[in-house]
Amino acid sequence: MGSASLVNQSYLYCVDTDLGWGNRSYFTFFSQFNRGATSSLLAAVESGVLVLFFLLSSVSNGVIFYTLSSNRRLRTVTNYLVCNLTLADVCFTLCCPLVAVTRVTASWTLGSFACKTIVYLSFVCGFVTIWTLMLISIDRYTCIVRNTKRRISPSLALILIALVWVVTLAAFTPLLLYFVVKDCPHGSEVVSICTLGWPRTPGVSVPVLFTVIVCGVGFLLPATTLLVCHVCIFVKVHKVRVAMAQQRQRCFSTSSALLANTSVWTTATTTNNNNSVINPAHTTTLRTNQPPVLSGSLAPDPKRQSHSLVVPDSPPPHSQPLLPSTGLTTTTFTTLDARRRRSSRELQVVKTLVYLVLLFFTLWAPIFVVFVFIMRDAYWSVMEVSSQAFMGAMCVAYSNAVLNPLAYGLSTERLRGYLHALLTCSGRLAPSPSPTHFSNGAGVGSVGGGMSGGVQVIRSGGGGGGRVLAAKSSGGTSMS
Question: By C-alpha distance, which of 360, 343, 346, 345 is closest to 407?
Answer without folding.
Answer: 360
